[in-house]
Fold:
Amino acid sequence: MRLRLELLLISFIFITAACVKKTKQETKVNIAPIAHKILVEEVIQATSYTYVKAKEDGMVKWIAIPKREVEVGKTYYYNNALEMNNFESKDLKRTFKSIYFVQALTEQESPGVLNNNSPHNSKKTELKKKDLIAPVGGGLTIAGLYSDKDSYAGKIITLSAEVVKVNNGIMGKNWIHVQDGSGDLDSKNFDLTVTTKDTVKVGDKVTVTGKLALNKDFGVGYVYTVIVEDAKLSK
Structure:
């Protein structure tokens, strides 16, 4: 059964019970003390996710998190989760009768900070600005898109950029970060998140064509000031 969310480390988890404070490209989440405590019994590493078999309040359950190291026999904590039934992991070639998608596991019972620059990644990634790439036909740049985003909202935009980060196969989409050298690190208007069905790799120079969405909220901690959805990427 195909998972239909708009994201895990999109959608409910990633989803509920949080007061989201939106600030440019980083979203801080004020959440109650972590409510769930688990003891890890088994760990399976896949391409993008870590699958954890754990015991919580005497009940054994499977949990999926963005890929990270998890130790068998260790205690971890988490907040909200989304249960999916009959979830098929194509990576593992296995169907889980019940599995809980969790944004992150922590080793301490305390809230944290979520970063919308990197969906499905529990650690903040500092994306470094790339060298300038000539815009398509001398047109739109990423910095220009941010500065005039209201004018482009809901419209199809096209720009040229370099792929700097890739997360494939998350909630039926590939999540790409692109940069074109415009903008600056302090203003955080240099990096653009794109969802697509196309496959690319880090370092590819691509032309991005897709619809611009503003203030897209996929759930707890995943709020995008600017995002290009269902884009076509051509090299």
